[in-house]
Amino acid sequence: MKAWLCGLDDEETSSVSSIMTFIGIEYSTSLTAFHLPDFVVLGKAIQSCELDEMIPVISLNESLEVVGDYNVWLCPLPWRSNVLSLVLKEIKQLHTFPQTAGVNLNLHVRHLEALLIRQALVSTQGVVSKAAQNLQIQRTTLIEKMRRYNIDKSEF
Predict the structure, then answer these.
(1) N or C: which end of the chain has fewer CB within 10 A?
(2) Is this prediction's pTM over 0.85?
(3) φ, ψ (nearest 5 deg) of residue 59
(4) 152 in Cβ contact with 118 (< 8 Å)
């Protein structure tokens, strides 16, 4: 999944980005980073929103005014894992329509690879050499893959 972070202050960005990284969701503060994100996270300072596309919105502001017919979840920080997992499950269900173009295997393999790397780093508390051993790959290969997927060992 991909998320666009909009209008978050430094503290909100730090909190949300660490959660997104931990659960394996790609995110960006730049709207041009993705063709179309799976959902948008709006900061507490955003009082109202109007989007051109029907994109699900997670708002950190409990009193967000929404213009249009959108799927909006009001989720102020700190996020609880049970609440967030329910919201993400609902967002995923919005995208479960059959794909006429088929499945992009490369995308799924890259996502799985990044997820396995993150899990290995979590289990080794960010120790790259131990994570590489657990994944049964060379340490240098793991470092290259971490660069490719923008995974920083300091996050773990």
Answers:
(1) N
(2) no
(3) -105, 135
(4) no
Which string of b and e fits 127-139 if b means at least 16 CB within 10 Å? ebeebbebbeeee
- According to DSSP H, which parts of the chain are helical? 10-23, 81-94, 105-123, 128-135, 139-148
Dihedral sign for Cα 74, 79, 85, 86, please: negative
d(CA 57, CA 69): 11
pLDDT > 70? residue 146: yes
Could you count the other beta carbons within 10 Å of the beta carbon of residue 56?
A: 21
Mean pLDDT of 92-100: 63
Residues 6 or more apart from 86 whose CB is under 8 A from it? none
CA distance 156 to 148: 17
Is 139 in contact with 147 (CB distance < 8 Å)?
Answer: no
**Sign of the CA dihedral 128, 130, 132, 137?**
positive
